[in-house]
TrEMBL record:
Keyword Phosphoprotein carried by entry: yes
Subcellular location: Cytoplasm, Cytoskeleton, Microtubule organizing center, Centrosome
Coiled coil, from the record: 36-165
Name recorded for this polypeptide: NINL protein
Entry-linked PANTHER family: NINEIN, NINEIN-LIKE PROTEIN
Protein's organism: Menura novaehollandiae (superb lyrebird)
Keywords: Coiled coil, Cytoplasm, Cytoskeleton, Phosphoprotein
GO terms (BP aspect): microtubule anchoring at centrosome
Amino acid sequence: QLLEAKASLSLARSQHALQLQQAKAQINNMVPKKQFEQLQTTLREEQGKTQQLQESLQQQAEQMCRQLVRTQEEHEHLLQAAVEQAEGLEHSLRGAEAVLAERVAQLRDAQAQLSKNKILIEDLRGENRSFAMALQAAELKQKSMEEKNQLLEEQASALKQLIGKITPASLS
């Protein structure tokens, strides 16, 4: 029993020495109370600042999200307006193309008519030349007839004078 008691005492001493050593190490690692309180105060201040920064960041993130949503909505509206404008322009383009096609058809018809008119004009010029030549011949004939008529009138006048002279002489 004595041996057991000595062993227990030796074990208790070594545990006590170990605990004492651990306690010394803890005491060496310990900070004075005033410094600990300052550190706690600084920690609380830093935690407060961190909390404020987190709240500020949260507010900024929410504000940026709202702004992003607004920007996205604006972009959607702008895109919708651009799509509507493009559709309107496409519709206008189709209308303009239809009008242009109609104008092209009208111009082709007009060109065909113009070609026909040119041919008619050439025909009429040919006929006009023929008529001009016939008219010139008719004028020459008329002039000749007028000259013959003039000659006949002169002859008729001379005959009348002659008859006028002969008639009184034959009556007497």
